[in-house]
Amino acid sequence: MMISVVIPFHNEKKNLPILIKKLTHVLKKINLKWEILLVDDGSTDQYQLSDIETLNEKIKLIKHIKRLGKGEALKTGIENSKGELISFIDADLQDDPEDLPKFLEKIHQGYDFVNGVRINRKEGLLIKIYSKIAYLFLKIFFHSPYKDINCGFKVFRRKILDDFIFYGNNFRFFPLYAFYQGYKVTEVPVNNHKRKFGRSKFGSGKLIGGIFDMITAFFLYKFSEKPLYFFGGIGMIFSLGGFLVLVYLAYERLIHNLLLYRRPLLFLGMLFMIVGVQITMTGIIGELILYLNKKLEDKNKFSYESRSSFDHHQHHLGWRSTNI
């Protein structure tokens, strides 16, 4: 069995040599074949290959011409990897390669995905608050089994990648995907060190982006197979609110004989009703698209199976006729 360690990096000139030295020291002690894939996501710090280590068949460097993001860097590393096991580790030296055997022990126990949990975290207050909010959100709305989904240190079996597509920042929710697909998942505690060199890639922009990412993941993992449940629920809330407002206004008009054409509440009720219907129709359109896609997939699958069965039958008849 081989393990492929994927290390995405951007401007980590001083950290890389130390990380590679520590990581190769650990990998040489484990009873597995290994390779390290360094994915340069458009670095501009003009590092030298000699600063890292002499590249060979076990240590490979892949470059992006420009910065595409961590998700694309991980995707590039996976596409060029060969191992049955894959590990992600960040290049900032905050994760300790010495913890790798803990992950492999869990893999040998039969787990498919092992996530790291950072203990005694050495990050700023903003990151800690963000992580706590993310943990509570994922726990409440996703029933997440993870304590630290944003830890960059992970080890998993390649088979998990069969239906997962890396794009944008969805790599953050890769652990949730493994959990929802029914794979056996667990966590191990890992040491967390303070960054010594370089600058953190986390900022206020990442915080806002993380909120949008969580909303996206909530929709994809909860409602991608039933969009009407998502849009229909929101549409019903708007429609019900508009309906109640219009009922109240109808009561005032019929019982108290009040004129309504100057009442702003009338237009608000009408607006709520219209918006509610439109949002619900979005869910219905989503259901139609999903149905047509499923129907097309089933048709293609049936055609492929029928063709394969026919080819096999023809081959079998030809073999019999030759022997007769």
Instruction: Please outline the major beta sheet.
Output: 7 strands, mixed
Query: What's the CATH topology label of the largest domain?
Result: Spore Coat Polysaccharide Biosynthesis Protein SpsA, Chain A
What is the average per-residue confidence, as pLDDT, rounded to a whole number? 83
Q: How many strand elements?
A: 7
Largest sheet, order of strands side by side? Answer: 3-2-1-4-6-5-7
Sequence of secondary-structure elements: EHEHEHEHEHEHEHHH
The helix count comes to: 9
- The amount of helix comes to 40-55%
Radius of gyration: 27 Å
Q: Low-confidence segments, ≥5 residues, pLDDT <50? A: 319-324
Q: What is the CATH homologous superfamily assignment of the largest domain?
A: Spore Coat Polysaccharide Biosynthesis Protein SpsA, Chain A
Q: What would you say this structure looks like, in words?
A:
This protein is α/β, with parallel strands linked by helices. It folds into two domains: 2-223, Spore Coat Polysaccharide Biosynthesis Protein SpsA, Chain A, CATH 3.90.550.10; 227-323. The protein has nine helices and seven strands. Helix 2 (49-52) links the parallel strand 2 (33-41) and strand 3. The radius of gyration is 27 Å and the shape is elongated. It starts with a strand and ends with a helix.
